[in-house]
Automatic annotation (TrEMBL):
Record keywords, A-Z: Cell membrane, Membrane, Transmembrane, Transmembrane helix, Transport
Record-linked PANTHER family: ABC TRANSPORTER, MEMBRANE PROTEIN (PTHR43738), HEMIN TRANSPORT SYSTEM PERMEASE PROTEIN HRTB-RELATED (PTHR43738:SF1)
Protein name: ABC transporter permease
Organism the protein comes from: Sulfurospirillum diekertiae
Origin organism lineage: Bacteria, Pseudomonadati, Campylobacterota, Epsilonproteobacteria, Campylobacterales
MacB-like periplasmic core domain boundaries: 19-233
Record field: transmembrane: 21-40, 261-282, 303-326, 346-364
An annotated GO cellular component: plasma membrane
Annotated localization: Cell membrane
Membrane topology: Multi-pass membrane protein
Keyword tRNA-binding found: no
Length: 378
């Protein structure tokens, strides 16, 4: 039996492919938006995964250094390490910095850590870890800095000793790493004028030995909850497991963005379904005479319905292929990481097929109303 889709491809190839590409661009945007969400989730957890920590110790009555401001005294790390079941600890600081390369500003998220602890920065692709407590740093490859570059930060010149790849903060900023003493110094750095003003006011110097969080690993087989409760009881802090911290980070920093992306995705899918419906309806109305002839020679309504649905599904599949190619060609142009997953693509394909079938119903309804006698009259 003659297929309407085959007739369109044979007689209107350019129009059919152009239409598929147009809808495909819309579906490509849907895939990119899903990829942006996947990138947000992955970026938010990169830093957590890198720590390989079992416990996060933060300021009492706070949700941790990412969701809320957290301050602790540095020397508490020695007391935490003394708890039974705790294997190792590392004190951490976090702050936003503005670096300059060729007079161009680069926003980064700086992390300070104990260089002698279990923690090491995100996978090094060049260079080495930080070995000295002062004037060494590690940067991400996308900052554009190279090994042995010297960067003026505050009043000191730092030497780039290591390069990481795809190291980002929970907000997507590129990561840089310092030793804990250097990071603390930068965090509380004051200008000369401010220092003079503070002295004139009799203001005490800021304590630069504070930190934002402590991460800890525990002995194999140890009870995380029991250790965390014991630390909270005696040290008056808040303790989260790695899983709890990840959940808080995702919920507090990504949830609103996820809802917004989800709304846009739903709207785009609705727009795509309306466009497919209108196109199939228009194509069907342009073939009223052919459909009337088919009815006149004895074609059943089932055959006509099948032809229109086939045309709609073929349009949807070609549009999906075009959208997939479109999204993969643009994903690297976005400022934040976009992760396109096969599972998301196959889910979208299923939705597209369903939408195509539903979108063909308007054309089916019009086709079934055609009077076979109209094939003779016109």
């Amino acid at each position: 039996m003659i297929s309407l889709a085959q007739r369109d491809i044979a007689h209107s190839l350019g129009k059919f492919l152009t239409t598929s590409m147009g809808i495909g661009m819309l579906l490509g945007v849907v895939l990119i938006m899903i990829g942006v969400y996947r990138g947000l989730v992955d970026d938010a957890n990169i830093l957590l995964k890198d720590t390989h920590a079992n416990l996060w110790i933060v300021q009492q009555d706070t949700l941790g250094p990412f969701a809320e401001n957290s301050r602790l005294h540095e020397d508490i790390k020695y007391q935490i390490k003394a708890f039974e079941g705790v294997k190792d600890v590392s004190a951490l600081t976090f702050q936003n910095l503005q670096l300059y390369r060729n007079n161009q500003p680069i926003r980064v998220f700086a992390m300070g850590y104990d260089i002698g602890s279990f923690y090491t920065p995100h996978h090094l692709v060049e260079g080495r870890p930080i070995l000295a407590n002062h004037f060494e740093m590690i940067v991400d490859k996308k900052t554009g800095f190279k090994l042995h570059d010297e960067i003026l930060i505050g009043r000191d010149m730092f030497n780039v000793v290591g390069i990481t790849k795809d190291a980002v903060s929970s907000s997507g900023d590129l990561m840089v790493y310092f030793s804990l003493p250097d990071a603390q110094k930068l965090q509380f750095l004051s200008s000369n004028e401010q220092i003079r003003n503070d002295r004139a006011r009799g203001t005490k110097a800021t304590d630069t030995t504070t930190i934002n969080a402590i991460i800890a690993t525990v002995e194999e087989g140890a009870d995380l909850k029991a250790i965390g409760q014991e630390i909270e009881r005696w040290k008056h802090v808040k303790v989260f497991t790695q899983e709890e911290q990840s959940s808080l980070l995702t919920k507090n920093l990504i949830e609103r963005s996820a809802k917004q992306i989800g709304m846009f995705t739903v709207i785009l899918l609705l727009v795509a379904s309306v466009i497919i419906s209108l196109i199939i309806y228009t194509m069907t109305m342009g073939k009223l005479k052919e459909i009337a002839i088919l009815k006149l020679i004895g074609a059943s309504n089932g055959v006509i319905i099948k032809m229109i649905v086939q045309q709609s599904v073929l349009l949807g599949i070609l549009s999906f292929i075009a959208g997939n190619l479109f999204s993969h060609s643009l994903m690297d142009l976005f400022p934040k990481r976009t992760i396109l997953m096969s599972a998301d693509a196959f889910s979208l394909l299923e939705i597209v097929i369903i939408v195509s079938i539903l979108g063909s119903l308007f054309g089916v309804r019009s086709a079934l109303k055609i009077d076979p006698a109209s094939a003779i009259g016109g």
